[in-house]
Amino acid sequence: MELVQTLPRCSRQSAVRTPTRELTRVDIALFNGFALPKVAAIIEIFQKANAFGASQQLHPRYDVSLLSAAGGRIASSSSVFVWTESVDSHQVTDDRHLLFIAGGAGVPHACRDERLSNWLRRRHPFSEIVHPIAEGRLLLEAAKLPSRYCALLYGDNETSDYYQVRALSEAPTEVATALRIVEEDMGLEVARHVAESVAPQQDMPWDMSVSRSGTPKVSEKIMASARWLEENVDQPVSIDAAAKVAAMSERNFLRRFKSEIGMTPSDYLLRARLNMSCRMLVESRLPVDKIARRCGIGSGGQLAKLFRKYLATTPTDYRMGREASPAEQA
């Protein structure tokens, strides 16, 4: 079991708060093969918070930097390239620092990058929060460093011990961490506004994530495997690999997953991929074929076949229908 550190409990802020001019530097460590969607969500949350600050004639509160061992162009697992700064060129300042560490299929290779591990060891003591995203925790383990979460995320009964130890299963998601940081800095109403603008609530046909709903009847091992399936929708996934996440034999895993979640792992993965494709159709202007590949479905033709089977429509028509106004849909 991985152990993590939590910081002293922060005082909960009121819904109305006057933001200060203090700058927070948000560093996101990347590597080839990192998982893009969750990194993008973190960036957008802090950018939206900055936009709100600008509307109040304040300086930006959050300075987000994308970092990698050597700097330059880094490819995500979905073949989207981003530009990064070298970790060696990025200096610690007197500002508040937060560190997020990306997850994704490229983690095993990144764990062997001594330059990245050494930088993590140097940066860790200066970072108020050190939040690994999914497999990103393996990078911290390789560097023999603990995760560090803000105790505010653990509820009202949290103790104030500086190094309160928590199991990994209790760790907050990276999106929850980012939103709670905004809430702590700028107030609850601002955080709600940012959350809604980043991820507006829309009913998706397959929005059935067990890992997010926290269904009581689902065991932690099966929950972990469901979460892993959702995080790897853009990758080739085998039942054997999912069973290893749950630390079970393949036969026992298939039986337990179906019993606890109500569908097979393959069906759950397909629904997660279709749910992601629905969201990307609504929230992006990417061509259908690219969306299909980024959701692990293979091609636009295969995605269209699945849409016709399960929704009796095409991806293009689904997108157009969701873009229509309520009056037009009536």
UniProtKB/TrEMBL annotation:
What SUPFAM superfamilies does the annotation carry? Answer: Class I glutamine amidotransferase-like, Homeodomain-like
**Which residues belong to any copy of the HTH araC/xylS-type domain?**
223-321
> What are the alphabetically sorted keywords of the record?
DNA-binding, Transcription, Transcription regulation
One GO MF annotation is: sequence-specific DNA binding
Concerning Pfam families, the annotation shows: HTH_18
SMART domains in the record: HTH_ARAC (SM00342)
Under InterPro entries, the record lists: AraC_XylS_family_regulators (IPR050204), Class_I_gatase-like (IPR029062), Homeodomain-like_sf (IPR009057), HTH_AraC (IPR018060), HTH_AraC-typ_CS (IPR018062)
Q: What is this protein called?
A: Helix-turn-helix domain-containing protein
The lineage is:
Bacteria, Pseudomonadati, Pseudomonadota, Betaproteobacteria, Burkholderiales
